[in-house]
Design brief:
The chain has a single domain, classed as Methane Monooxygenase Hydroxylase, Chain G, domain 1 (Up-down Bundle), CATH 1.20.58. It has three helices and no strands.
């Protein structure tokens, strides 16, 4: 239990941030799964563009590391290319 007013406030802030980060990570993971699950090259390309935007935004906001975002985008792009899609 927090003992000071500032610790109480910090607890509230941390909880709000935790929930916001959890929602962002969940949304990101769903987008990545949709790209991997897409079997149609055109659909995969479209899903990739949406996922790449989310990855960049997550990296900008500090949700994930920028190198992790770059690595994920590269792997997804390779997957889409193997399907025959264009980026």
């Amino acid at each position: 239990m927090p003992n000071t007013k500032s610790a109480v406030k910090r607890l509230r802030q941390n909880e709000r941030r935790r929930l916001r980060n959890k929602a962002g990570r969940s949304r990101l993971r769903t987008a990545l799964k949709r790209v991997r699950a897409a079997s149609d090259p055109e659909q995969a390309s479209e899903m990739y563009r949406a996922a790449a935007r989310l990855l960049d935004r997550a990296a900008r906001r500090g949700l994930i590391h920028r190198n992790q975002a770059a690595r994920s985008k590269g792997r997804l792009a390779a997957h889409v290319r193997r399907l025959g899609g264009t980026l």
